[in-house]
Amino acid sequence: MKKNKYEGRVRRWLIEIVVFVVAIFAIFTVIGHFLIRPVGSELSNKNLKAALTQKRLNYVAIGDSLTEGIGDQTNQGGFVPLLANTIGEISDVNVVSQNFGVAGNTSTQIYKRMTKEKKIQTAIKKADVITITVGGNDVMKVIRTQLMNLTERSFDKPAQAYQKQLTEIFDFIRKHNPDAQVYVLGIYNPFYLNFPDITEMQDVIDRWNQATQEMVAQQKKMYFVPINDLLYQGVDGSRGVTSSDGDIQTITNDALFEEDHFHPNNIGYQIMSDAVAEAYKEHHNEK
What we know:
Elements: H1 2-35, H2 41-53, E1 56-63, H3 65-68, H4 79-91, E2 94-101, H5 107-116, H6 118-126, E3 129-133, H7 136-145, H8 156-176, E4 181-185, H9 191-194, H10 201-217, E5 222-225, H11 228-232, E6 241-245, E7 248-252, H12 266-283
Parallel strand pairs: 1-2, 1-3, 3-4, 4-5
Antiparallel strand pairs: 6-7
Helix pairs in contact: 4-12, 5-8, 8-10
């Protein structure tokens, strides 16, 4: 009987000792976790703290295929993510971007999406920076519908209708957000590659951009970003690149997507991003 009682005490002591050792080990493990940091952990913690305290900037991209990023072989969204990264570097902010670009959209279709889609309206309300690509498909629509009888005057009435629609787009943005900075990209001329017989197209594009620029200038915190000369002339600054095969000469453009000779390629989108970034550098501190 005494032996069993003695064995029971020994067993309890052993259990108590094991529990005590485990508890001590756990305590030192926790202390070591906080006092002994792995190499580089302090830097990681600082980066995490910086990320959590860094100011957020909401960037909203609205427009057509240039905003969607058609021709971008990385499928990341054309100039939009490039510009978002650059804005973050310029202003030391955490840029959160939303891309509402839809290929083929005319100014009318862009405006309809803005007025009907609540997601776009919510994004506009919260935006700090907005970019708009619009107008290229309006020009293309004139070419397609009047190709057989196309002249410079074919663009007169469509240009007036476009300007009216653009005013509605601007008014809608300002109704929902009077403070965001808005960067409106001009259109460029890839048409000489697909329609070489329409030699007056550059004059049409120039007038179209001039009208857009004048409209943008009437708005507060809106800025026109010309890109025609940057893309139309190719990367090397000439009127595209001419290659010869016997008696046949072919004009290509090394800033445009090879498959359609219409949309920018990766280099072209970088050029667009740089152009908007330069405008942002100039105006982002304006009140």
